Amino acid sequence: MNPDPLLNTGGLIFMSVYLFSLIGIGLAGRLARKENTLADFYLAGRGMGVFVLFLTLYATQYSGNTMIGFAGKAYRGGYQSLVMVIFMSSVIGGYLIYAPKLFRLAQKHGFITTGDFIQHRFKNNALTIIIVILSIIALGNYILTNLKAIGYIVVAATGGVVGFAQGIIILSLIMVIYETLGGMRSVAWTDVIQGVLLLIGVVLIFIVIQVEYGGLAASAEIIKNEKSDLLKFPNWFERRLWISTIGLAFFGISVYPHAIQRIYAAKDENTLKRSMQIMVFMPLVTTMFMMTVGWVGLAQFPDLDSRGSEQITILMLQDIGLRVPAMGIMIILFLSAAVAAIMSTVDSALLAISSMVTKDLYGHFKPNKKQSDLIKFGKIFSWIIMALAVLLAIELPQTIWRLMEIKLELLCQISPSIFLGIHYKNLQSKSVLAGVIVGTFIALLIIFTPGLPAKPWGIHAGIWGLIANVSVLGMYQFRFQKN
User: Which residues cross the membrane (predicted)?
Assistant: First the structure.
């Protein structure tokens, strides 16, 4: 990679001012606090309007995986990676199955976390704890993917003056400071800025690539001549992989604990539905645009290894900077957008982990603790989990996309408890518990068994686990009903 910094002195000053202004927003969120309660800290008082709710959902769902990981995935997979647009579109379908009814229940019963719904619906401590632990592990993994992406960006932006590890540490400190200052209110307010930057950055780089490199048409000719295997019609194995990938998003991303918290935080049900309606269009102007970056990058920089492909967005920005020096403003905006997208996801995941540990685990064993004490515990835990995530992000060698897959394969095992639990009144807690245990075991067995394909028969480990999960759930449920 070109060692020259992507940002000049002015760009670095702009980025620094933007980043440290987020701490000011965190302080504003703390000053705007209406009461020292869990609902105020973790759900911003349940008062988000359409504009804020849409942008915080958008900034949270589209992250470093989108800006860095998706482009790398497109580079490695060629045009078959087009499935990623459907992948992200399917998430909204998942939300619409359960979100409106879950919102009504949350308003009635005062839910703060996913675990609150599970405990209310099934009244099974073991089930609640298992689902909370799976959620925490998955969100911890989610933080890792985004911290790795932010490390790549900082190195490229500064030309290596600030190293990979240093970049992760500095930005992690900023995030954990404003998150613990103002909770969800600060996170949502920063998401508004970050969501706007993200949309502007993605649209700008798409337009510049169309103009400077001839877009998809020119790139297709190059790929056809040099990498024709990446343009071939998918075989049955690859088609199954497509369907499996869509299933991973539908059942995994749609039950993100931090997204569920935003469902709880909506001002009213109409606000929630309107925000979801706008979200339907975002894969076309976000996922599709970043996939284009990967495809054009494949034509311009062929033969990158797996690690190199993870940085294809950065390579494209560096090349654009050399070709068109006047594009410095665009590069500043895009890098700001990329950093904003990552931070909006990490702070949301961190807040969700803090709330689940505080409310569902610590609060369960300390039922007499005051809410102010629980909030204090949650803030301390946020610092601990961020420190651990920083260490792992620096050391782990996996690609961003592979880490994302592992996260979703675990979250898939949670989906029956939510999708079915919302609509099926006779669903038994023991049926759900047995399904979650078996499904998680199968998924982990496939993921970590040496020599076993990560996607047997073209199907992700998490989907195999989900099939086992639902099968066991169905058998137990049939037995209960029969008796």
Answer: 6-29, 41-59, 79-98, 126-144, 150-176, 188-209, 241-259, 280-298, 326-353, 374-394, 431-451, 457-478
